[in-house]
Amino acid sequence: MSLPNPAELISQMAIRLEAYLAKRGISEPRYIGIRTGGVWVAQALLKEMGNNEPLGTLDVSFYRDDFSQNGLHPQVRPSALPFEIEGQHLVLIDDVLMSGRTIRAAMNELFDYGRPASVTLVCLLDLDAGELPIRPNVLGATLSLAAHERVKLSGPELALELQDLAL
Questions:
Q1: Which 8-state DSSP code applies to residue 126?
Q2: Which of helix, strand or coil describes residue 166?
Q3: What is the Cα–Cα distance from 109 to 146, expressed in whole angstroms?
Q4: pLDDT of 114-135, one tens digit each?
Q5: Three-state SS for 84?
Q6: Three-state SS at 33
Q7: Of all helices (H) and strands (E), which one includes residue 16?
Q8: Which end of the chain is more exposed for a tag (fewer CB within 10 A), N or C?
Q9: Of the candidates 72, 71, 123, which has an alpha carbon nearest to the alpha carbon of residue 99?
Q10: Domains and CATH numbers, the chain
């Protein structure tokens, strides 16, 4: 399977995101990347859009519903939101949407900071393996993988790698 070029996806996503926000009359959104891959995607997207707004970062480790099963990842860092959440139009950015649980955790955390006016979800890839009714408003590409396959994004230069868990 050939993986899409992340730089091309980012370019297309920037155009679609600007159109999406314009259609809804959102002129000053606040951008938030989900650590780690979502932050890399958010940085690339903001650069492509020529946007110098501050970028918020979320580490949703404590909000995941599998926290008690999987424990704490050794590289957990605090979330950093350099702006108010209450009443703001947020653009939440992640790299790979799989089950939807990371996005659910991110929204739970965001609502602990306040009630946003809206949340727009942007994802580089959707693996079409949802367990929750969560779909991105702006998407780079959808991939259908075998049960033993995963996609890993490395960064911050945004390179995609197909991993075979069966090996």
A1: E
A2: coil
A3: 31
A4: 999 999 999 999 999 989 999 9
A5: coil
A6: strand
A7: helix 6-23
A8: C
A9: 123
A10: 6-164 (3.40.50.2020)
